[in-house]
Every structure is written in C-alpha cells, then in structure tokens.
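STRUCTURE REQUEST FORM
Protein name: Glyoxalase
Source organism: Amycolatopsis alkalitolerans
Requested output: structure tokens
Priority: standard
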Amino acid sequence: MRDTHDACHVAIPARDLDEAVEFYVFGLGVKMARRYADRVTFDFFGDQLVCHLSDEVPEEAVMYPRHFGVSFARPEDFDRLARLVETRKLRVLTGPSVRFEGTAEQHRTLALADPSNNVIEFKNYDDPRLQY
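Status: completed
Returned output:
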C-alpha cells in the first residue's frame, strides 16, 4: 500500500527550534525541509519529522512508553550511524548494544535523546524480515 514516495509523519515537541535544527541537521545529518516560526520539518531518513515549538516537553528522556526511530535493513547503515553518534558526541541513552541475544528477535540498538528529551531509537535486526 505504501509507495516509495509516501512518508510516515511524526510530530514531536521542541522547546527551542534552533536546538532542534542543531541536533537533527548538524548532529544526525538529516535534511531540513521547511522552517516556520512555530515548527521545523525534517526529512528524517526518508520520513517526515516535525518539531513543534512547545512548552510541554518531557522533563526527562525516558524510552517508554514513547519513542521513535529507524530500523535499518542494512547493518552497515547502523554502523555508520553509530560512528556518527560517537564522532559528534550526541547524547546517548543506551547502546550500542544487543537486545534479545540468542533469539529470533536479536537486534542491535542505540537510543539517543534530543535537546527536548524526545527519545530516538535506531535498530538493526539480524533477520531483516523483522524490521517491521
């Protein structure tokens, strides 16, 4: 049903749009698509991420119940992202580590927090059929 030209849309709060741009563009290397006084839209690994200016940001970066991210199909893409995070000294919450080791759902994971305490998780499953 989803075409390669379609994009998943995720909207999150941001306390400061300049901080959001610094983190997502100059930290993670995603492309800024549009910027307005109250929001900024990014091409987040092929999907649409919108940071809306808000006073209601999480007090702390907590993985559950809410986070978002990317499940990389190719291990080299996960490795590249992990190197970028290390080089740019981004705020890491967990990982890189292996979850569910020895099971069919074994995967590598890395969780970050943006400046507004939104949690972003990156994964790569050993079995690529499990990325969905």
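Reviewer notes: The mean pLDDT is 94. Helices lie at 17-27, 75-87.
Form closed.
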